[in-house]
Structure formats: structure tokens, C-alpha cells
Amino acid sequence: MGDESRLDIGSEHDILTARQRGRELAEQVGFSGSDLTILATAISEIARNIVQYAGRGRITLRAVDEGEHRGLVVVATDEGPGIPDVTLAMQDGYSTGRSLGLGLPGAKRLMDEFDLDSQAGRGTTVTMKKWITSPSARVH
Amino acid sequence: MPIPILKLGDYLIASIQTEITDADLGQLQDDLAERIGERRSRGVVVDVTAAEVLDSFTIRTLLDIASVGKLRGAETVIVGMKPEVAFAMVQLGLRLHGVATGLDLEEGLAILARNGRGSADGG
Description:
The structure holds two protein chains of two kinds. By secondary structure, chain A is α+β, with helices and mostly antiparallel strands.
């Protein structure tokens, strides 16, 4: 299982490590060009969310195949306070921290699939996927 | 690692390296505000050529740097954004409200020179 990475997120430095590792793995999986930057940016946003709101958490990066599609799945988990109002948190410009309030909705726009599961007092799990869309990745 | 600030005539130049921490950026914001006063600088160029990722926090800090600079009498130009970084920023929903941008350092300095002259001539 060389196509999986588990990263502990607890500091600002871990955010940098996570997005670097994400970029490397995405390249191995077959992503290229601006998709690498888009993935790294989305990972940066959710890693920052963990540090800012939960303090600690974990990000798992994994290659994924579904039918003829190949992609990368990013799972961010924390046991932090959870998000009291998920609908509000997914709105642009809403932030309780020092940011532009684009973290979660921004990450959603960067990825193809995005799922947010949060329970007050229990923590938050974000699962997001991006698929390779370059012609070389399609079955001819 | 602190981000070095170079002085060139009336201007200050700061080059952001590949992987900068939030603390480095915060430090840059403080240092620039101070140096603008010390050097009586009229403009600041922040070069992000080496940045592989600019997330919402980093952009927010860059906007803050430009706002603080403006209040201290200096205009800020952000230069060198990679095409893929620009693309990701737009998808993320980020806009650089009111901050001048240029392709590279040369263009950034030209923008500052042009705008500086414009105000000195009264338009």
C-alpha cells in the first residue's frame, strides 16, 4: 500500500507537510499540471481547519479506483468541538476564526466530491475526492 | 525562516519562498510596516513566484500586508503568481480586492513607478 499516507496534523508545519505529501501522492497517482496545485490547496484548507478549530487531527491520503476512474481521496478527521451549524460553515465568508471564511466551501469547489460529517462535541470528518480528467487517464 | 526584505530606491522587495509558515508571513507583515517608515518607501513588491500553493490564509495575510502598507503611505504590488496558483485561487473563490498585480518583479516596479509619477503630477 504505497499509495496511502497518514499524517498527524497538529501544527502549522504539519499543514505544509500535508500539502507537500498530497502533491507528491497526486503525481504518483497520475495527476498533473494545475490539478496538483488544486489538490494541494484543498488539502491546505482542510488541514488549516483542523489546526484552527480542533487543534489536532489526522489526514489520510489514498489513491482510489472506481471503474475506469482513478483519483485521490482525502479524509480529514478530528475529535474537536465539531461544527454546530454545518450549513452556516459551508457558506462563503462565514468564519469564526482568522480566515476569509473560504476554507470548507473553497475546498468543496476545488474537489469533485465533498462530504462533511460533524457532530457537536465529537468531532468532524471531511471526505473529499478528485478524479483524473486528463485524456490519457481515460479508457480508449 | 524570516523573509528577507530588499531595498531598491524608493521601493521594498520581499520574495516569498516555496514553503513559508504563517509565522514567517506574520513577521513579514510587521517588518514591512516598520521598514516602510524607516526607509520612507513609496511602494512594496511582494514576489510570490516560488509559492506552489496560496491558500485562503496566505491570501488574507497578503491583503493585510497591502492594507497596512497603504495606511503607511506605500502601495503594494503582488507579482509572480504562477498560472496554476491563480487558477486554484479563482476556484477557491479568492479575489485580490484592490491590490495591484504584475507578471514579474520588473512589471511590479514599473507599476509602482507609473503610479508614483501619476500622483506626483496630480494625475
